[in-house]
Design brief:
Elements (H helix, E strand, L loop, with lengths): L23 E6 L4 H14 L26 E7 L5 H10 L12 H8 L2 E3 L10 H18 L4 E6 L16 H11 L4 E3 L12 H4 L3 E4 L6 H14 L3 E11 L1 H7 L2 H19 L7 E5 L6 E11 L5 E11 H21 L4 E2 L17 H17 L3
Parallel strand pairs: 1-2, 1-4, 2-3, 4-5, 5-6, 6-11, 7-8
Antiparallel strand pairs: 7-9, 9-10
Length: 387
């Protein structure tokens, strides 16, 4: 792993010779959800100097020369099927302890501006529109947003609720793949921060080659820790016999993942890092329990049974308690900026260099340290390209 230590840093603003500053759109699918609301509020707070960019990897020194769009040039919009206005959602997150008390009045204008750019999503139950009609509608919304604000480009970031795994032989595309197809049609980079199909659907194989995209399922807590600990056992030649985990969570995620089909999609990514690092033969599963009283907060336990020298049996247990929205929001801003720069340089297809951010990435190593080195190399590549 690189010896460079992350320190908070505000990227220098890039201003063309004519004095204009290019602006970049960030279009959230699930724009009124907890992650998107926290990201919009957090970007406004950091830009205004109200809070430091804690948790934003791209605000550290190794990324200062990568040519990423500055935070104060980001313009937000999105799709959602929910109707709670963004300022009201921010108030709810403040009451839940996700956003700091007293923040929302100072960023009310930014929240209202983003709310004005949220368009109806879909499909809702009973929606008569075909897949093609929905894709065309979503793509038109993206193009109109870009034109309305004279944006250099728009990055689509999927942060909607987890979908069940697609049924074999299903005729219709899942909603996440409709949005991914619309992103490709509108020539927008695409990020899938959820376990949903998105750009991974087989029907989008050709489309996926035409735009830069990254995913799947953001790595914010339990799996982040696993991606550090699992390589440790391998490097120390310790034999892992079993690795089990339990998640207790509330809020919208808890309600969504109470559906066994949605939970199965989530768990597939959580277990991948162990399979990729430790290989087969490790017992254990991950359980997800909905506990509404926890609200926006999550507790994750891991129990690791391993063997040491001469077969001595040992146990490692970990507890992770955190707020997923506050962990995820800085990462989706990081990804939007990185994909915007990749798009600016004409890069296309899946970006395995961004595996650092995902449970189920588009290739690359599984260990966090190796993923971080790949990310730093990508930042150097982005910075070395002409601007």
């Amino acid at each position: 792993m690189s010896g460079r230590q992350p320190v908070h840093h505000e990227n220098a603003k890039r201003t063309p010779a004519d004095g204009r500053r290019d602006r970049t759109g960030v279009w959230f699918v699930g724009a009124r959800g907890s992650v998107a609301t926290t990201a919009v509020a957090g970007c406004a707070a950091v830009t205004a100097g109200l809070h430091p960019p804690t948790g934003m990897v791209t605000q550290t020194p190794p990324f200062a020369g990568a040519g990423l769009p500055p935070l104060d040039t980001l313009v937000f919009g999105g799709h959602d099927t929910a109707d709670c206005p963004l300022p009201k959602r921010a108030e709810q997150l403040t009451a839940a302890g996700v956003l700091p008390a007293g923040l929302t009045p100072g960023i009310h204008a930014e929240l209202n501006a983003a709310e004005a750019e949220i368009r109806p999503g879909g499909p809702l139950p009973g929606d008569p529109r075909t897949d093609e009609e929905l894709i065309a509608r979503f793509a038109d919304d993206l193009t109109a947003f870009k034109n309305r604000h004279a944006l250099a480009r728009v990055v689509v970031v999927h942060v909607a609720s987890t979908e069940p795994l697609p049924e074999p032989g299903a005729v219709r595309l899942p909603a996440s793949s409709l949005y991914a197809a619309a992103a490709e049609r509108a020539e927008c980079p695409y990020v899938n921060f959820t376990p949903s199909s998105g750009m991974r659907h087989p029907a989008l194989a050709e489309a996926a080659a035409r735009i830069p995209h990254a995913g799947r399922d953001g790595k914010t807590g339990q799996t982040l820790l696993r991606s550090v600990l699992a390589p440790m056992f391998v490097q120390r030649a310790l034999s892992v016999r079993a690795w089990s985990g339990t998640n207790l969570l509330g809020g919208g995620d808890g309600a969504t993942l109470a559906d066994p089909a949605a939970a199965a999609a989530k768990n597939a990514g959580k277990e991948r890092v162990l399979a990729d690092t430790l290989g087969g033969g490790v017992e254990g599963t991950v359980h997800i329990d909905d506990v509404p009283a926890l609200g926006e907060w999550k507790t994750a336990w891991d129990h690791v049974a391993f063997d040491g020298f001469l077969g001595s049996r040992m146990i490692l247990q970990t507890i992770w308690q955190g707020c997923d929205s506050a962990l995820a929001a800085p990462l989706v801003l990081d990804l939007a900026r990185l994909l915007a720069r990749a798009h600016e340089l004409g890069l296309t297809g899946p970006r395995p260099e961004l595996a650092f951010f995902f449970k189920d990435p588009d290739g690359g190593p599984a260990a966090l340290a190796e993923q971080f080195d790949a990310l730093l190399a990508f930042a150097d590549r982005l910075g070395a390209a002409p601007r």
